[in-house]
Design brief:
alpha/beta, 304 residues
């Protein structure tokens, strides 16, 4: 049988679609041997590797969203009704800062939220070693010092997930060993190749990134920088996805990274997209199994 791996991309609330993907794979009894996650994909993938059950992950995440500490993030203020849907998170973040006259305060800090609050927020993540999880797992982070992409295959799950999810400017960088780490999305969008590095020979990639749409002509230097960041991220994702055997794209194009109030709808979108891919997934697994058996037979008889 194929050694099946999952590459789970980032995307904030959009990444909750990963739960729906996992629920359907569980229902179909399709075994996942390894998972590599980035940002929200690291959170969902790490918790799934801990529980080994998608329903438990869903209950865990929905409870976390209802947690008072999560409410203190005031995420909903980043998604006002008069906001442009496709603004990236930097754009929304600075609008959020400006409405509270906190821009000056943020200039002498590396993040809006401090370490104490961030540690409390991520304290719900299991305090266990990655190497002790039920499923082989790794998480992508980005080292601010060297600019290197770091794929953690061992270490403390809570700390590694916190690093992979450290959105620049919002959460503080995380110090692990010699690295100063931020969100893996800064260097990797959908970590397909990294799943293969930890043992998968077939990779399903779950893509929850925004589609690149036509936009208005940039009005100033900030608009140019934001648009450039969107274009870079989009094309990086396209390149990474070329390495996947199968791609699941939940239909959440009208939702933003802050739409946690639509959590159940996003999870359902993940389920619907995966249900449509089940025949292809099973066909791919069986095809690979047949090829492996044929190679073994050829090897056996050629050695006679």
């Amino acid at each position: 049988m194929s050694v099946l791996g999952l590459a789970l991309g980032g995307g904030g609330a959009r990444g909750l679609a990963h739960i729906g993907v996992l629920k359907v794979l569980d229902k179909e009894k399709i075994k996942i041997n390894s998972i590599t996650g980035c940002s929200m994909g690291a959170i969902i993938g790490g918790i799934y590797a801990f529980f080994g059950n998608a329903k438990q992950v869903e209950d865990f995440i929905l409870k976390a969203i209802d947690n008072p500490d999560f409410a203190k993030l005031n995420i909903e203020t980043l998604n006002s009704s008069n906001a442009i849907v496709d603004k990236n998170y930097f754009d929304k973040f600075f609008e959020y800062i400006e409405t509270r006259l906190a821009a000056i305060k943020s200039l002498d800090r590396t993040s809006y939220f401090d370490e104490d609050f961030t540690n409390k927020l991520f304290s719900i993540i299991p305090d266990v070693l990655i190497e002790d999880l039920k499923i082989t797992f790794s998480a992508i982070t980005t080292d601010l010092i060297s600019g290197d992409e770091i794929n953690f295959t061992k270490g403390n799950l809570r700390e590694v997930v916190k690093a992979s999810s450290a959105i620049p400017g919002i959460f503080p960088p995380v110090k692990i060993d010699k690295y100063l780490l931020v969100d893996g999305g800064a260097s990797e969008s959908v970590p397909v190749s990294k799943v293969k590095e930890i043992g998968a020979d077939k990779v399903i990639a779950v893509d929850v990134t925004r589609q690149l749409k036509l936009t208005e002509t940039p009005r100033n230097i900030i608009d140019v920088l934001y648009r450039t960041e969107d274009i870079t991220s989009y094309h990086l994702t396209i390149e990474r996805l070329k390495e996947a055997d199968l791609i699941i794209r939940p239909q959440i194009k009208d939702l933003t990274w802050v739409d946690f109030d639509s959590a159940k709808d996003i999870i359902t979108a993940g389920e619907i997209a995966t249900e449509k891919k089940i025949p292809d997934i099973k066909k791919s697994i069986l095809k690979n199994s047949f090829i492996q058996k044929t190679k073994k037979l050829i090897t056996f008889y050629s050695s006679k």
